[in-house]
Design a protein that fits this description.
This protein is 35% helix and 22% strand. Helix 2 packs antiparallel against helix 3. The protein contains 5 helices and 5 strands. The protein has 178 residues and is α+β, with helices and mostly antiparallel strands. The chain is globular. The N terminus is likely disordered.
Length: 178
């Protein structure tokens, strides 16, 4: 797979009750570039996917994770992400932002993910980049994942001292622009 950077750009929307709904949309489209309808549709798709995935993780954690031996919401999410990739919809990864990954595979893998972790830990709510993969345009996007529930420390005790709102991870998306 060959990636070529074309343009750069600048735990959103987990639950309405959490008060985060809409934080991603405020970070999208703030560049001065002319609007590309296909790119705007893809940004909307990322926003919808981000809301969906983060809501599912919070729901699973709230309803089904009661002790450290239960299947974690992160494990369920990674399984869901793999299914979406296998079906050709998009690629998404849960990436650690603490330098203490639960699994080594969760470490940032490339320059985009490394710079996204830095930007999101620095306060941005969204980062993106348009790339070419095998001659086709894709949107690479990343959003922050903060600790939002006390239950998170069941599986991640090192999150206990994380400041409220500080990202402990990111979701890294690669979505075809159509």
């Amino acid at each position: 797979m060959r990636l070529t950077r074309l343009t750069g750009g600048s735990l959103i929307a987990l639950l309405i009750a959490a008060g985060w709904l809409g934080s991603l949309s405020s970070g999208i489209g703030q560049t001065k570039a002319p609007a590309d309808p296909a790119l705007e549709r893809t940004r909307d798709q990322v926003r919808m996917l981000d809301d969906l995935y983060k809501t599912v993780v919070v729901f699973i954690t709230d309803k089904y994770v009661h002790k450290d031996t239960d299947v974690s919401a992160g494990t369920a999410a990674v399984t869901l992400f793999s299914a979406m990739k296998a079906k050709g919809w998009h690629d998404i990864r849960l990436v650690d932002a603490t330098d203490q990954p639960f699994e080594e595979n969760n470490s940032p893998k490339d320059a985009f993910e490394k710079s996204a972790v830095k930007a999101l830990k620095g306060g941005k709510t969204y980062v993106e980049e348009v790339v070419q993969i095998d001659g086709k345009p894709f949107l690479r996007a990343a959003t922050p994942v903060p600790v939002v529930m006390k239950k998170c420390v069941l599986c991640h005790p090192h999150y206990a001292d994380v400041k409220e709102g500080e990202p402990i991870g990111i979701l890294s998306y690669i979505v075809p622009i159509k």
